[in-house]
Write a structure and sequence with these properties.
It contains 12 helices and 12 strands. With 401 residues, the protein is of the alpha/beta class. It has 3 domains: 140 residues, Globin-like (Orthogonal Bundle), CATH 1.10.490.10; 101 residues, Beta Barrel (Elongation Factor Tu (Ef-tu), domain 3), CATH 2.40.30; 127 residues, Nucleotide-binding domain of ferredoxin-NADP reductase (FNR) module (Rossmann fold, 3-Layer(aba) Sandwich), CATH 3.40.50. It has a 6-stranded antiparallel sheet with strand order 4-3-6-1-2-5, with helices on one face. Strands 10-9-8-7-11-12 form a 6-stranded parallel sheet, with helices on both faces. Helix 12 links the parallel strand 11 and strand 12. Helix 2 packs across helix 6. The two termini are 33 Å apart. Its EC number is 1.14.12.17. Keywords: Detoxification, FAD, Flavoprotein, Heme, Iron, Metal-binding, NAD, NADP, Oxidoreductase, Oxygen transport, Transport. It comes from Paraburkholderia denitrificans. InterPro entries: FAD-bd_FR_type, FNR_nucleotide-bd, Globin, Globin-like_sf, Globin/Proto, Hmp, OxRdtase_FAD/NAD-bd, Riboflavin_synthase-like_b-brl.
């Protein structure tokens, strides 16, 4: 691969503001171009996010960040690792990168026209090739360490309703072999054919049980849709069309949001809504592996009807003296039991539980809506918690910064 010259880096960096202004237009046109030429690639991309515009916007932000830091890629931090895990979970392979590059650069030329000259396009071509090699190399290491390659058939051996919105699916390999290991906090992609779209659609779901090799458990929230959002194609298919005995295709576990199991420092797990799923995996693992490691479990949801794993949390609290919990119900009903189902009424407020969560040397794990995680992180940092000890999981197109 030909290296970028200093002048070419300067050209790419100078055109970064163009992506800030026109990026979403370019990336929307890119996806249209690519899918017209390679409709089979629709099976790799969330078509709901395509229709809503969130995926093109996310790509535009990523391209802008890369261009703006072309001369200092270390400034991108963990973004490359985060994207590589997502790609590996979707089975993105090296042969896909030339296709993406050809249509992305074509979209730049189509949208910007005479505003971009050939030297600039040449610089962007080399910049893309550089990025592709970085991603391919990072993803190769993930594939090498994965429990299996591609999508593997699993059979549903149990289906359990956790709340009015969330149902758990216990998945065992269809060939009877081991389900393999994973790190608590990781996720898998599950692929289902969506009749309305005419394509397979992968969706990523956190694993919600401790690793033990017998099965993998995912806990899926039904996305019913609202006035401004469409119902979730795959989540509704899982709830309504996947029963015990159904075979689904599952990728190997991926994700860098994982529990540090190497020490005995205190752990604070904080979740909102369906963000409880990776926390359940972390908590189950901690309860198995350590009798002495202090664990504080903080959760926020609307009320008991949507509170997944509620009964299990009661059992954990009764059986482990090193476990503390703080559950907030924003809209507790008359049937919800204060002190049993929940501990505090209202939105999660760290100011009300400082004694429980401000633990010396603790590691903090946050998962939930982006606004929820941003608020909790800011509250922790304001109270002196080292940002390096705060770990977050982000799905979809949201960003904390």
């Amino acid at each position: 691969m030909t290296a970028l010259t200093a002048d070419q880096m300067a050209l790419v960096k100078a055109t970064a503001p163009v992506f800030a202004e026109h990026g979403a237009t370019i990336t929307k046109h890119f996806y249209k171009r690519m899918f017209n030429a390679h409709p089979e690639l629709k099976n790799l991309f969330n078509q709901t996010h395509q229709q809503s515009g969130t995926q093109p916007e996310t790509l535009a932000r990523a391209v802008y960040a890369y261009a703006a830091n072309i001369d200092n890629l270390g400034a991108l931090g963990g973004a490359v690792t985060h994207i590589a895990h997502k790609h590996a979970s979707l089975n993105i392979r090296p042969e896909h990168y030339p296709i993406v590059g050809r249509h992305l650069l074509g979209a730049v030329a189509d949208v910007l026209g005479d505003a971009v000259d050939q030297p600039t396009l040449d610089a962007w071509t080399l910049a893309y090739e550089q990025l592709a090699q970085i991603m391919i190399g990072t993803e190769a290491k993930l594939y090498d360490g994965a429990s299996w390659s591609g999508f593997r058939p699993f059979k549903v051996i149990r289906k359990h309703v956790e709340s009015s919105e969330i149902t758990s699916f216990y998945l065992a390999p269809a060939d009877g072999s081991s389900a393999g290991g994973f790190q608590p906090g990781q996720y898998v992609s599950v692929k289902r054919f969506v009749d309305q779209l005419g394509v397979d659609q992968p969706r990523q779901y956190s694993l919600s049980d401790a690793p033990h090799g017998r099965w993998l458990r995912i806990s899926v929230k039904r996305e019913a849709g609202r006035a401004d959002t469409q119902p979730g194609h795959v989540s509704n298919l899982m709830h309504d069309g996947v029963e015990v005995g159904t075979v689904v295709h599952v990728s190997a576990p991926m994700g860098e949001f994982t529990l540090d199991r190497s020490n005995d420092t205190p752990v604070v797990l904080m979740s909102g809504g369906v963000g409880i799923t990776p926390m359940a995996s972390m908590l189950a693992t901690l309860m198995i592996e350590s009798d002495t490691r202090p664990v504080t479990f903080v959760h926020a949801c609307r009320n008991a009807s949507v509170h997944a794993f509620r009964d299990w949390l009661h059992e954990v609290a009764d059986g482990h003296p090193n476990f503390r919990r703080a559950v907030f119900y924003e809209n507790a009903s008359a049937q919800d039991r204060a002190g049993v189902d929940y501990d505090f009424e209202g939105r999660l407020d760290i100011g009300r539980i400082e004694e429980a969560v401000l633990v010396p040397n603790a590691d903090y794990y946050l998962c939930g809506p982006v606004a929820f995680m941003r608020e909790q992180r800011e509250a922790l940092v304001a109270r002196g918690v080292d940002e390096q000890r705060i770990h977050t999981e982000i799905f979809g197109s949201g960003m904390l910064d």
